Amino acid sequence: MTIELTRESTVTATDDLQLSTGPTSDPALSAWVREIAALTRPDAVVWCDGSRAEHDRLTAQMVAAGTLIPLNPTLRPGSFLARSAPTDVARVESRTFIASHRREDAGPTNNWREPGALREELAGVFAGSMRGRTMYVVPFSMGPVGGPISQLGVQVTDSPYAVVSMGIMTRTGTSALAAIEAGAPWVPAVHSVGYPLVDAVGRARADVPWPCNDLKYIAHFPEAREIWSFGSGYGGNALLGKKCFALRIASAMGRQEGWLAEHMLVLKVTSPESKVFHLAAAFPSACGKTNLAMLRPTLPGWRVETIGDDIAWMRPGPDGRLRAINPEAGFFGVAPGTGWSTNPTAMQMLSQDVIFTNVALTDDGDVWWEGMTEETPEHLVDWRGEDWTPDSPTPAAHPNARFTVAASQCPSIADDFDAPEGVAIDAVLFGGRRRSNVPLVTQAPDWSAGVFLGASISSEQTAAAEGTVGELRHDPFAMLPFAGYHMGDYFAHWLSMADRVEHLPQVFGVNWFRRGDDGRFLWPGFGENSRVLEWICRRLEGTAAAEETPVGLVPAAGALNLDGLDVPAADLQELFAVDPAAWSQELDRLEAYFARFGDRLPAQIGQSVDRVRDGLRAARWTR
Ligand code: GDP
Ligand code: PGA
Ligand code: MN
Ligand code: MN
Hints:
Layout: E1 9-12, H1 14-17, H2 27-40, E2 44-47, H3 52-65, E3 68-70, E4 80-82, E5 96-98, H4 103-106, E6 111-112, H5 115-126, E7 134-142, E8 151-157, H6 160-169, E9 171-172, H7 174-181, E10 186-192, E11 217-221, E12 226-230, H8 235-238, H9 241-257, E13 260-262, E14 264-270, E15 276-282, H10 289-293, E16 303-308, E17 312-316, E18 322-325, E19 330-334, H11 344-349, E20 355-357, E21 360-362, E22 367-368, E23 380-381, E24 387-388, E25 402-406, E26 423-424, E27 427-431, E28 441-443, H12 447-455, E29 458-460, E30 472-474, H13 487-500, E31 506-510, H14 530-541, E32 546-549, E33 552-555, H15 569-576, H16 580-595, H17 603-618
Parallel strand pairs: 2-7, 4-20, 5-6, 5-11, 8-10, 10-12, 15-27, 27-31
Antiparallel strand pairs: 1-2, 3-4, 7-8, 7-9, 11-12, 13-17, 14-15, 14-16, 17-18, 18-26, 19-25, 20-25, 21-22, 21-23, 23-24, 28-31, 29-30, 32-33
The protein binds guanosine-5'-diphosphate (GDP), 2-phosphoglycolic acid and manganese (II) ion (2 copies).
Binding site for substrate: 91, 234-236, 285, 400-402
Catalytic activity: oxaloacetate + GTP = phosphoenolpyruvate + GDP + CO2
Subcellular location: Cytoplasm
């Protein structure tokens, strides 16, 4: 990945803002920047070039402001720790809005707002919201600049943390700007932390290390293809290329244009016979995407390489296959649970040039979080900035503490990571965090059953969004917080891929999180998930045996490679158990949920529910 380093320019003094067009030849872009500046009243406007010099200048400035703490350069070169406000640690789904013209186009799973009314509200909160601050203009590309699946955007923001993070997570700067100037369409994205340095009566007020506002708006206008985010500096709310553009706006674009924007990792698997497979997998936030994308197989001869860990854009290709890119350029990963034993690839990747948010600080100026090492340090400063010892009642790192790091630093990054035309997807996996019911792995017998599998994901809620951790919730396609339109239409769009893609991927369900009665995980997970990937790849090439169950095909006896693995037979039995009574309840829950989608629920989904019910009735299934 290369980013060109050139043009940068600063325009200062509020009076000039009306006149300045900025360093762009694009009249629409400069008019928009002027319009936002006139609304938000920053002291200065800086056009960002995405260069290393810019990154260094902004990080130094944030160190001076107390936003970033430089880590020990010997232990963690080029790296920083940010501590957010304790109220600004996750995505805020209750303040995330889809403002389609008609309420029914947003659907029952989204917070809908009438676009005109929302625009008026936003104009109110953004008025003067950047006073005393600098407004940065960040042109960016999602996907390789100019690629056939890529898209452009411009984020304006008053948060240098957002600028630096966008610089890691997307392809920002000069080449993206050049593509916009050449006439490509772009998505405007406005972001303000909502903490002007001038109070309501015009008095100056001091800045704080992590400015934000209790009032938050994460607003999307899918028809106008426009994003407005207010009040938060946290990743998913503030790095607008990610969830806001690449999922919510892009899913709506994809529906109109015949492609898919998905909450999916993409990985490349190479078998011992050097056969290559590309897999995409959707799991809800904090349910194992980054870990699977960087998995180090325990099975000899198998190799896994990383293409993406969070988002996939997939389009029918000229070859009749579904072709996927990772639109991002970096990883915004969950720190807790990432350790040398679980994810050594990620640990290597994090050795330098990382921005950590809400992890703990060690006494020698390095970082630590729960699960990073076997031993717990005797003393830490926790994510709130307070002294911490192993006796402290709260975790040292926030459960949703994150790292932000360039994909190019990932030791397992695939050679086709940057391929503009994407990779051909052989299989799609759906999964969630389920302590019961859902087997370790199943295969859908056909596309329609596969779409049902995606639609029926439920998962125990994690710390990635506000809400009660552990509570089971429906999260179809792991897109509940991210679908930019009606979920019933979304299912129909997935079903319609059968008419658009000649060689459809096979669809599988996985669940690494099933637990025994004693609460422990039944499956070792992490690197051992390569055993499940092996069965999936063998199914793709037609060499692995499967057995039918009412909920899909499962590995036939002996087909799942368990060589050298110490999982008790009883646990294995439980990992694949399909309890008819529990499943009957599961289907009741699902039917009640699907009923919310009314006549927008495709008939095939209801038929799939009936098919599973019939199967459960026909066979008293035990395994
Ligand atoms: P993502 O947010 O979907 O990318 O999820 P991550 O890969 O960051 O994982 C979220 C959390 O789940 C981390 O604490 C991981 O350690 C944990 N996790 C990931 N994969 C597995 C697995 O196979 N088994 C178990 N038990 N935990 C896992
Ligand atoms: P995750 O990404 O899926 O890696 O947790 C952030 C999010 O979904 O909020
Ligand atoms: Mn995500
Ligand atoms: Mn992740």
